[in-house]
Amino acid sequence: MEAVTHTTLSAANLDEIPIAKPTYDRNDVGIGIVHFGVGGFHRAHQAMYIDRLLEMGTKEWGICGVGVMPADRKMKEVLQAQDGLYTLILEKPDGSRQPRVIGSIVDYRYAPDDPEAVIELLAAPTTRIISLTITEGGYNIDNIGPDDISVFGLVAEALARRRDRGLKSPTIVSCDNIEGNGEVARQTFSAFAERVHPGLGQWIEANTRFPNSMVDRITPVTTPEVIENLAAEFGVADAWPVVAEPFTSWVLEDDFSDGRPPYEDVDVLLVDDVRPYELMKLRLLNASHQCLCYFAYLAGYRFVHDAASDPLFAEFLMRYMDEEATPTLLPVPGIDLPEYKKTLIERFANPGVRDTVARLCFGSSDRIPKWLLPVIRANLATDGPIRLSAATVASWARYAEGVDEQGEPIDVQDQLADILVPLARQQRDNPTAFIENTDVFGDLASSGRFVEAYTWALGSLHRDGARATLEALMQKESAS
User: Fold this and answer.
1) What percentage of the chain exceeds 90 in pLDDT?
2) Would 398 be classed as within a structural domain?
3) Which three-class secondary structure state does DSSP give residue 7?
4) Nearest-angstrom CA–CA distance, 478 and 480
5) Facing residues of 20 across strands?
6) What is the pLDDT of residue 1?
7) How far is it, in rounded angstroms, from Cα 138 to Cα 472?
8) Does residue 223 carry a pLDDT above 90?
9) Which domain does 260 fall in, by range?
């Protein structure tokens, strides 16, 4: 067999890379955006949009990534070795792949190595946007000490310097999956800044914009197989490429402190109020992922596309979206909701993406309260249906017992696992033990209608298993 030759991705080798790549001169690109949380999603989404703008001649909006967590050191090492370059591979439903080298991340800093340099970068007048993908749980500032290196501490110090130097404030753009993500960011940054620099919170309120945003692109974890396939199929040696589905969407409120890139030129939807779009995405796509993942894992599925291609699971998801989620949404201008929901099932079933069920199960104590519990509460308030949502919570509780239906261990990856797993293991004797955790569920355990639906589903999961429970749910819904 003839050996496959491949080219190591770097600026020096860019001309030899045999796939689509930047044609702009990256040496002419200035840093206008500093982004915290450079992971797979940022590189598949926001950095891709900026790459498109750079191709169109925009030069002042390059990205400098910043990492603050210990796990970010690896990203620093990879991106520095590759001069910020990486490959985005779109996995199409027909099995074909479309790779492109993305060049919009022109620098990367690991903050613990030199926090002062990061603060000065954030304080520089050329930095006009600070953006974030720090996960849903990243906005908890209660445990951040004044000397800890954190997103909030670095930004607060930089904003204090801008205030003292008479400079404009940057815009802070949260791209995390939280209802009102801009408002959450505004409250969190203002509160932390006021704590460490009294008076700074008021300056932020007057000068800093925090537009809400909705981001959408399914982006699975990069596996060794992705790296190997890129080298074998396209001849590119990239230590950390990123894979995504072809679909992408970004809806952003047009509210900026000091200018913005011409996002509209690359199909970003700029609106006055992002909330309707945000609710649509969180309660349809994100909550549907949770509806799918625990039942799927318990039923033996390990890849999302396999579960979503199962007619029983597809029916369950569509019924949840139609009957429980959609009635809680606001009108969404310009969106064909039936088509959007149909497309979601098709996206989940894309075999090229190879998204894992385990990824969707990760961090459930952050995800369920933000994406699914609001649907339940809205329907409880209007006497709407909750049976499918309650069954999803029950499937999470059953999954959190840490043992599957074959008696094999489940690795429950959750920041509250030490609390929730022991509760879940009590629920065969006390069926409401899990949902009595008020930090996660609030007062839901006091709702008789929710408890009835939840305990029915949990009992069925224990007695009959995941698949039989879904079948019974679909029969109940058809009869109701």
Assistant:
1) 94
2) yes
3) strand
4) 6
5) 100
6) 35
7) 38
8) yes
9) 7-271
Number of independent structural domains in the chain: 2
Does a structural domain hold residue 2?
A: no
292 shares its domain with 252: no
Q: Give the C-alpha separation, 201 to 190, whole Å.
A: 5
Strand ranges of the sheet holding 171-174, from the earlier edge strand across to the other edge: 105-110, 62-67, 31-36, 129-132, 171-174
Q: CA–CA separation, 262 vs 344, rounded Å?
A: 28
Q: Are 201 and 249 in contact (CB under 8 A)?
A: no
- Rg over alpha carbons for the chain, rounded to the nearest Å, is 23
- Residue 1 belongs to a domain: no
* Same-domain check for residues 346 and 428: yes
pLDDT confidence of residue 146: 76
Convert the pLDDT of each residue in 41-53 to its tens digit. Answer: 999 999 999 999 9
Position 385 in a domain: yes
Give this prediction's pTM. Answer: 0.89
263: DSSP letter: G
Residues facing 243 on adjacent strands: 89
- pLDDT of 325-336, one tens digit each? 999 999 998 899
Beta bridge partners of 22: none
Residue 262 DSSP SS3: coil
- Asked if 404 and 294 touch (Cβ cutoff 8 Å), the reply is no
Over residues 458-467, the mean pLDDT reads 98
Tokens 């961090």 locate to 363
CATH of the domain at 359: 1.10.1040.10
HSE (side-chain half, CA atoms, 13 Å) at 475: 6
Close Cβ partners of 205 (under 8 Å, ≥ 6 residues apart): 186, 190
